[in-house]
Amino acid sequence: MLDEMDKTILGILIEDARISLKELSQKVGLSSPSVSERLRRLEEKKVIRAFTVDIDPAALGYNLTAIVRVRPLPGMLHIVERLIQEMPEITECDKVTGDDCFIGKLHFRSMEQLDGLLDRLAEKAETNTSIVKSSPVKRRLPPLG
Amino acid sequence: MLDEMDKTILGILIEDARISLKELSQKVGLSSPSVSERLRRLEEKKVIRAFTVDIDPAALGYNLTAIVRVRPLPGMLHIVERLIQEMPEITECDKVTGDDCFIGKLHFRSMEQLDGLLDRLAEKAETNTSIVKSSPVKRRLPPLG
DNA sequence: TGCTATGCTCGACGAAATGGACAAGACCAT
DNA sequence: ATGGTCTTGTCCATTTCGTCGAGCATAGCA
């Protein structure tokens, strides 16, 4: 499905998505038209979902991060889901099996702000919040193998 | 700290980090050297941590995702932290306040694989695993405001 | 053996990035 | 006010890069 060359290319792009085709093609030992074509196919196949930029939330003033587990009260599941989607401070959220229904990541500037955000959920769900102290594993890819 | 122009630029780059300087500069209404200079500064200030590529784990064969909460047994904290860092299937992990000490995201191909991975933690920590059913909020940025 | 698919290279041309010289505005101390 | 300087911008010439068309090599297969 993905050959070694594709994986090499992806590995390089993860570290620098703005590398020029030329430099990329030199690193992997192909001509730039072939690399260009491979990129096109990787995008087409949705292996590459997007080229994007990794921004430090702290640089935007969000010095604090929390992980929130959310268990909607009976009958509130869809309302809570919508509520979560409409809170832009929640930057990712998964719906999961188990007692908790949603697990999300929240960026905020102060405890007051956190309190305000959680209050909006409190009427419709039980929440359990853990403040992030550090990130032993930064976002990375699972093995390409 | 970040002016409106920077935020506009970041907003565009989040959606397409490989956009040409020229097109980017047209969209924001500056010349390309100035945009280039702004990018340089944004990288220098570490607002932009990296230009990267968003890859679908499913395209690499990881059809399943779980969120794992890990509570090391007494005295095992550092060993567990190292263990987590050395498990490449864990693609992000935070150290948090509260009963759980670590919360991580895990990509895997089969229940057997999940079982194997959790077994490696089981001797040194209690774990609590939630399988991801869907992702109501895909990775996004908190408000730039 | 010969047909076709795929995936590559090469070279040329137009497009884009870069670097240098310089201008406009904000701010400050004199 | 005057002049210095710092920041952020433009413009333009040069260099670098991406894309396109044409053509070649290999693998799979009737």
UniProtKB/TrEMBL annotation, chains A, B:
Keyword DNA-binding: yes
Biological process according to GO: regulation of DNA-templated transcription; response to amino acid
Keywords: DNA-binding, Transcription, Transcription regulation
Keyword RNA-binding annotated: no
Domain of life of the organism encoding this protein: Bacteria
Molecular-function annotations in GO: sequence-specific DNA binding
GO cellular component, one term: cytosol
Pfam family, one: HTH_AsnC-type
Limits of the HTH asnC-type domain: 2-63
Protein name, UniProt field: AsnC family transcriptional regulator
SMART domains per UniProt: HTH_ASNC
